[in-house]
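Appendix B, Record 12. Input sequence as logged:
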Amino acid sequence: MENGEPKGAWNFRRSEDAENAGRLTIRGVLNAIMSNIDNGDSRPVIPLGHGDPSAFPCFRTTPIAEEAIVSAVMSAKYNFYSPTVGILPARRAVAEYLNRDLPYKLSPDDVFLTLGCTQAIEIILSVLAQPHANILLPRPGFPFYEARAAHCGLEVRHFDLLPDQNWEVDLDAVRALADRNTVAVVIINPGNPCGNVFTYEHLSKVAETAKKLGVLVIADEAYDHLTFGANPFVPMGTFGSVVPVVTVGSISKRWLVPGWRMGWLVTIDPHGVLKETKIVDSIKSVLDITSDPATFIQGALPQILENTTQDFFSKTIESLKIAADICDSKIKEINCISCPFKPEGSMFVMVKLRVSLLESIKDDMDFCLKLAKEESVVILPGSSVGLSGWLRVTFAVEPSLLEEGLGRLKSFCQRYEKGN
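Logged structural output:
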């Protein structure tokens, strides 16, 4: 080192894996699309690509949750470091919340609190990652699983969801993909990105299939109970006596507070398989080297889960149903886009884009980039969730804004239609 300069080249280099990780996520894709917005357009940007409705008045959280947070902070009882598994009253509250829908009872020892659902995913994938292991993921799905699996060195194998069968799991594909190194199958219900809700009968078949294959079921239930169609929400944990289930969830979506980052990882395993195989011990070990949810939010969690009224949930469901109806009817007016299945849950719908009917549009990503630039409407390309030639539309926005956004989408499509 001379005059503060190294004698040779600097030793450090950026990690290409770190740079590429963001490109595999919904956030990374949406950031790229948002950067294409024309800042000279005076119209408001309409976000039909993200899953955060909290900015809109019709999707505000309940005052009960807000008051619980204030009370927890003002009490000065939650200024300490949290235990790595989460504080006991909060874990007990999550167990009791989930027990409402299960045929057997969870205890606080089955619950591990996390920084939202995404950290719960990180933890269970880290626990399962081992040399030569693979995991079965749905296509289309939530790409955070792929990004995290790549980070852990966990091989990914995709099974299809079938659009002509209400996006049910292709169980034949699951059986064909699995081998002795398969550790888990992921089920997202209610569906992100498809807006589907699996029936009890279909989930039972998933459980039986996983049992025969000897694999764990990871149940992503971030959108639990956000259903407004014919099928009610059935937790995968209902079948915990058939196959071990690890459920990941949070208050982010049902309570409309994704920024609070309050989630959980729960083992639903009446026969104790996950304890025998040391999975539970490994979960605790990984938690020892991760960050914890803010303690005051954990302190507020029992009041939030126990005291929120059904009226609040009903209002949210009604708002989502109205928005889903608007989305379904408006999409039917667009020639180059079709919807094989009206959404019945979550906040999304997958629609088929017929690029062959359009001029100067190469693919779904090109479509979304040009739509953002010309109409200030942001939609997620299907390729980012594993299904090229499709689009994921988020309908959890203010109804008037949703109608305007879909109107701009229609105008954009008409402008690019062949023959115009």
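The mean pLDDT is 94.
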